[in-house]
Amino acid sequence: MAVFSLPEEMFGFYKKNIDYLSEHAVDPDKRRYVLKNEFSRHYIDLDHWEEQPFDTIPRDLSLAVMKYGRLIAVRGEDTILISIADTFRQKFYFKYLYENPYDARVDIDADFSLDSLGIKINCQECHFIFENIFVGYGVLPYFLESYYHRLVLAFQAVDKDRILKISADLGHYIADAHVPLHTTENYNGQLTNQDGIHAFWESTLPEFFADSEYDFMAGQAEYIYDKHQRIWDTVLESHTHLKILLAAERELKSSYNEDQIYCFSERSGSTAKMPCREYAQAYHRALNGMVESRMRASIKTVADFWYSAWLDAGQPVLEY
Ligand SMILES: [Zn+2]
Fold first, then answer.
1. CA of 210 to the centre of ligand 1 (A)
2. Domains plus CATH for the chain?
3. Which of 2, 17, 64, 193 would staple 303 via disulfide (CB 3.0–4.6 Å)?
């Protein structure tokens, strides 16, 4: 749908390749269980780290990794937590994590002097590791921002295959950033006894109602002056919808019987347990257009980022 928001100079090329874009928009999810660093790019558990409004979560990945990570001395079975003075955190980061900020665990070289970080520790036969706890709870906004630059580079090189591949990928991550349940530790309602709400919200509702009721016209793409801000605004706005998203389902659940909530349907030869249509209809009404408006916002944001990358690359001619 984002293709239809693009200006004329981009529309022809994207329209011609719309099947490719549609088909490959799900590639990042297919890679989730295959590529080591893929998993955490799709979400950020904001509420694991801080409380709303989340101002104190560093917007720079290196600072976030250092803030929430742990330096540990290990000797045999014993481990000791070492605190790194704030003044040395950046230095440590650039020495160990700059190249691979997504590595969950980093071994510190035996000959690296912790002294130089202001860490005084007397521990014979110790070895040191840094646990990058932050990445496991998601890096979506950080990754998205860095990935955007790859699209600009692809446009600059007028490398059509790369433009299409990155456009499809980027669209996926942007869409994920619009899903409230991608911004919370309670991503599947598992902490509030609402297991399955993830698929209910993002799959079942659109499957039932998108074709007949959603309006996807998002308007013309606009240039984004501050990409960083736009990405964070998106994620933070997604999170503000969580409360209603969860409360509405909790309330419904209390007034329906189990057999009115789940129905069995045939899907590609097997039987699947799914929310019943009537129950979905009630949830759809209670959300008052939330899924639709997040999807429409997502379409607009995808188009805005594609368009901005093309402009930032100097408006290359895209022959098709
Ligand atoms: Zn995803």
1. 19
2. 2-50+139-312 (1.10.575.10), 70-132 (no CATH)
3. 2
What is the distance in A from the centroid of ligand 1 to the CA of 38?
9
Q: Ligand 1: distance of its center to the CA of 87 in Å?
A: 36
Alpha helices in the chain (DSSP H): 8-16, 18-24, 27-31, 46-49, 61-68, 86-96, 140-156, 160-177, 197-199, 205-213, 227-240, 242-254, 258-261, 277-287, 290-312
For ligand 1, the distance from its centroid to the CA atom of residue 30, given in whole angstroms, is 9
Question: What is this structure's pTM?
Answer: 0.92
Q: What is the pLDDT of residues 296-309, one digit of tens each?
A: 999 999 999 999 99
User: Residue 220 Cα, ligand 1 centroid: separation in angstroms?
Assistant: 25
Ligand 1 centroid–CA 150 distance in Å is 19
Tokens at 173, concatenated: 């991550």
Under the banding of pLDDT at 50, 70 and 90, the label for residue 87 is: low
Distance 261 CA to ligand 1 centre (A): 26
Distances (CA, A) of 286 to 199, 200, 260, 276, 310: 17, 14, 17, 15, 39
